Amino acid sequence: MSLALDLPRNGQVRGACPHDCPxxxxxxxxxxxxxxxxxxxxxxxxxxxGVLCTKVSRYVERSYHAERVLQPLRRVGPKGAGRFExxxxxxxxxxxxxRLSAIAARAPEAIVPYSYAGTMGLVQGESIAARFFHTxxxxxxxxxxxxxxxxxxxxxxxxxxxxxxxxxxxEARLILVWGxxxxxxxxxxxxxxxxxKRRGARLVCIDPRRTETADxxxxxxxxxxxxxxALALALMHELIVHDWLDHDYLRDHTLGWEQLRERALQWPPxxxxxxxxxxxxxxxxxxxxxxxxxxxxDGAGPAAIRLNYGMQRTRGGGNAVRAVASLPALIGAWxxxxxxxxxxxxxxxxxxxxALQRPDLLAGRRPxxxxxxxxxxxxxxxxxxxxxxxIEAVVVYNSNPVAVAPESAKVVRGFAREDLFTVVLEQxxxxxxxxxxxxxxxxxxxxxxxxxxxxxxxxxxxNRPAIAPLGQARPNTAIFRALAARMGLTDPCLQxxxxxxxxxxxxDAVDFGxxxxxxxxxxxxxDAPFAQGNFPSPSGRCEFFSARLVAQGLDGLPDxxxxxxxxxxxxxxxxxxxxxPARNFLNSSFVNVTSLRAIExxxxxxxxxxxxxxRGIVDGATVRVFNGRGSYRCRAEVSTRAREGVVxxxxxxxxxxxxDGRNVNELTSQRxxxxxxxxxxxxxxxxxxxxxxxxxx
Length: 697
Ligand SMILES: Nc1nc2c(c(=O)[nH]1)N[C@H]1C(S)=C(S)[C@@H](COP(=O)(O)OP(=O)(O)OC[C@H]3O[C@@H](n4cnc5c(=O)[nH]c(N)nc54)[C@H](O)[C@@H]3O)O[C@H]1N2
Ligand SMILES: Nc1nc2c(c(=O)[nH]1)N[C@H]1C(S)=C(S)[C@@H](COP(=O)(O)OP(=O)(O)OC[C@H]3O[C@@H](n4cnc5c(=O)[nH]c(N)nc54)[C@H](O)[C@@H]3O)O[C@H]1N2
Ligand code: SF4
Ligand SMILES: [Mo]
Fold this sequence. Notes:
Elements: H1 2-5, E1 11-16, E2 26-32, E3 35-41, H2 54-57, H3 59-63, E4 73-75, E5 84-86, H4 89-106, E6 111-115, H5 128-136, E7 140-142, H6 148-157, E8 174-178, H7 182-185, H8 187-198, E9 202-206, H9 212-216, E10 219-221, H10 228-241, H11 247-253, E11 254-255, H12 257-264, H13 269-276, H14 280-291, E12 303-307, H15 317-330, E13 340-342, H16 353-357, E14 369-371, H17 375-380, E15 393-397, H18 401-404, H19 408-415, E16 421-426, E17 438-441, E18 450-452, E19 459-463, H20 476-486, H21 498-506, H22 512-518, E20 520-522, E21 542-543, H23 547-551, E22 575-578, H24 594-600, E23 604-607, H25 609-614, E24 622-627, E25 630-638, E26 646-649, E27 685-690
Parallel strand pairs: 6-15, 7-14, 8-9, 8-12, 9-10, 11-21, 12-13, 15-16, 16-17, 22-26, 23-25
Antiparallel strand pairs: 1-2, 2-3, 4-5, 4-17, 18-19, 19-20, 22-27, 23-26, 24-25, 24-27
């Protein structure tokens, strides 16, 4: 109640960008007569620097979008047809509560929550929602869809999701932008890289696609998808044979050097060049540049690696991250605050997850875990044979699985089950919402409280609501509080309000007064955390060799694992397809924002001129992309942004806004990564053909 009183009629309100982006920008929303008129970057927040990306500078357009879902909706047509009628909140909640209670009484694990990072807020993410599902004893969800291979690789090497402070990239002399298109997906890191470039740093981009970031780097290494570990091992090979090593750092702060040395010596550059499909000279040159930065000599200056999640979406993604995360220790790069690497900083935040999510509410029950990356198979599973009960109800929030999960044909078939009860909390009528029994209108970041950690910097941000909820929209928390009450769940923690939850998220570890005053608070962390070792790993060292992996029956050392669907392994499907994000969308968010979709145009497939000519495909033609799992139609862009043998299907479109009501995930598979049980979106063989006139609509 007190929260609503905080809403200004006029003024500026500090907030946080909620989207799944490493930058977690500080926002300032201008409110005039109770209406948000403008969203800007907070100039007082160093990491934001007053600048937002194109997407979120359109936030007012998104929030007041004519297609916002602003009242509860109940399905009237067949599953998936997207036909709904308005219904009152009371009626909707009563019915949902009754349906879920009936299932919970019989088989609570038949209820599955499905959520990801539509908002990265800790409050509108897993707070009351987690408490609610824990109280019921519902299935747990393995939240693997994005980052868990890399997270596991990092954890098994450095000990956690830790790394350099992003601001110090500005002082590096050599920056490897590895597996990420920074200009599109972490603009604020790119500002620091640009600063370094102006000061004379060399920038190298390692990416199969010639991205806009690759264009702006001094060198582009266009390796085949899923071959990063081979490249990293060859770099180690060169560091070893030329003795570009920091022997003191290796002795004092690493574990398993002798074994790793032996492994790396099996990877001369010529072998890696063959696997990666790049010139051997490029590998040798990169090794020389990296070796020149070693810390034990008066070298060229610090070398920094900005690794991103794009390189861990293939079978060997976890091992690849292990290999790359090992590199800085070989040259002692961690000694300098501008040396080392960064994949994710999220492990540096003292988030009080147990206080927020209350796993104790399980009260000794141990529900099964459903992997969100294989939701297609899970929904189609008839139950048991180790699976547990057939899934009877799914509650989706902060995610759009029908568009973003792999192997869409199965995902769609699963969500189309007439006997599945589906509730979707959404801001928009997404492909997933089309498959709901009930769609419940959710507030946007302008309309609710939240608190945020980040994965690309180390500041905590508070988000205050700037405007009252539009229409009948409610925050996720309010919806789960209401459901809990109606289902007779009486633990008082199920009714904690959003301000209380915001305070619980970090407890005493962060000064809430500072957050209320400034909108952000910087964690007190050392500038060069691993200069003296002190890794958060079991040994306190950088673990080249992981005893924990051996205990799981896995290789203790990083290695190159060929893709599930390696180029050349199928005569029918000769092209490798990757599906990286389109610059003006954020996963499948923003696809319905007209001004942003206008920039992207149509669903595009970039194809190299040689591959296009071999198939009679001209620029701008409609093509059919297909493999054994499915097909979709899109527009071909004949371009050297694609390397030969690899096509780039830019994602992630709403299916219903695609050319034939499908998107790129029609082709991706549900096979998982080596570590972390993650999807292998970029490990996917396809064929492309010019669309026959008969097939065209
Ligand atoms: N504009 C925009 N920003 C985003 C997103 C978005 O959809 N749009 N998504 C957000 C999300 S969810 C995430 S997880 C983050 C990080 O998201 P990332 O997945 O890191 O996204 P990108 O920065 O586009 O980087 C992916 C890059 O990896 C390349 N790549 C593909 N396969 C390989 C490979 O095997 N090896 C190497 N070295 N590179 C490969 C692709 O060509 C692409 O350029 O970005 C976030 N930011
Ligand atoms: N082919 C292919 N597939 C991919 C990827 C790829 O690169 N290629 N990338 C993968 C990656 S990295 C990720 S992270 C996943 C992302 O997949 P998702 O996490 O599903 O992300 P979005 O597609 O952005 O969908 C988020 C939804 O949450 C809604 N939302 C936002 N805020 C709120 C809120 O406060 N309350 C409620 N109830 N809803 C809200 C938005 O409207 C949006 O529809 O996709 C994965 N899928
Ligand atoms: S999407 Fe990323 S760059 Fe854009 S405003 Fe949000 S945090 Fe900043
Ligand atoms: Mo992601």
